[in-house]
Amino acid sequence: MAAASSKAESRLMAKATYRLTDPETEVYIGDCREVLDGLPEKSVDLIFADPPFNWDVPYGEWDDSRSREEYLTFTQQWLDACLRVLNGHGSLWVNIPDDTAAEIVVHLKRRGMTMINWCIWHFRFGQHRVGNFIVSKVHALYFARNRETRIWNPDTVLEPSDRAAIYDDPRTRETKQPGLRVPLDVWYGPLWGRIQGNNRERRKNHQNQIPEVYLERVIRACSNDGHLVLDPFLGSGTTCTVARALRRRSIGIEYSGQNAASAWERIQSGPIRLGPGVPETNSFMAHRKRGGNGTHPSSTGPALFGDSDSAPAESDPKP
Ligand SMILES: C[S@@+](CC[C@H](N)C(=O)[O-])C[C@H]1O[C@@H](n2cnc3c(N)ncnc32)[C@H](O)[C@@H]1O
After folding, report:
1. Is any ligand 1 atom within 6 A of the Cβ of residue 254?
2. HEC states along the chain?
3. What is the pTM of this model?
4. CATH no. for residue 53?
């Protein structure tokens, strides 16, 4: 009974600390489990979550070195709180390393969610180690409430196909979008590296920042103009910054007041990378005839794997 009334109270209490209109953008400071409980049920179209990994990262107020049991309980609680606010055509993305990917997949399947893709974000600057292979990926888990009715806009995120960019296959010129394809489920390339060192996107004092292109792909593909996008672990503000630029409404939740203030500054100044343009191919192969690096015919570009304007940071605890 006491638990029920405190839930009801938090439902009345959720109040944004920062707010902008056109499109509506709100940032809440607090524990996402409590803030989510204060938001209306089934009100959100898309959720992107990049939680703390429990790798003892100094996030300011949040303790990122809990017992395994406590961390798994926390994980299930925030997942359930997200599911409560996700609507019937909604999608949920989770950015998570090897440690907890399996537990999250099992939990979401048990809750009736449908896995649409198990994507990989691949980067080249993993933390140096000798005891095992260097980590060069994070899982990007893509779940939906309903495979058939989910929002899915593949035409907004196309990339050059290897058939067109590498093999000059003439059949690729006769398609609806010549030379382009829906992206593969392994994500890498120019601009897809970790946001480190002197990367132009880098925000000071943020331990883990996701590239803008990653959020751009997720938001374009899985929401429409005016839809509501939510990030329960806002960090440096990548999700709301990109969502706002793409004319989506958004809600960001962040435990640290300092991080939230910095994210808010970023949301108001807007993204660095976003803009039209034909993307580079990210093929591993050289062009079959020209021997080049396989860039799209209409563009010249940087190295294939990104990180090109970022330097490795040796002491970074989390890729
Ligand atoms: C991995 S970072 C997110 C980085 C973000 N994707 C970006 O691009 O900047 C996780 C963030 O979640 C915040 N956080 C940790 N626990 C939280 C909680 N229970 N509720 C809300 N935010 C939390 C941390 O302070 C940290 O800023």
Report:
1. yes
2. CHHHHHHHHHHHHCCCCEEECCCCEEEEECCHHHHHHCCCCCCEEEEEECCCCCCCCCECCECCCCCHHHHHHHHHHHHHHHHHHEEEEEEEEEEECHHHHHHHHHHHHHCCCEEEEEEEEECCCCCCCCCCCCCCEEEEEEEECCCCCCCCCHHHCCEECHHHHCCCCHHHHHCCCCCEECCCCEECCCCCCCCCCCCCCCCCCCCCCCCHHHHHHHHHHHCCCCCEEEECCCCCCHHHHHHHHCCCEEEEEECCHHHHHHHHHHHHHCCCCCCCCCCCCCCCCCCCCCCCCCCCCCCCCCCCCCCCCCCCCCCCCCC
3. 0.88
4. 3.40.50.150
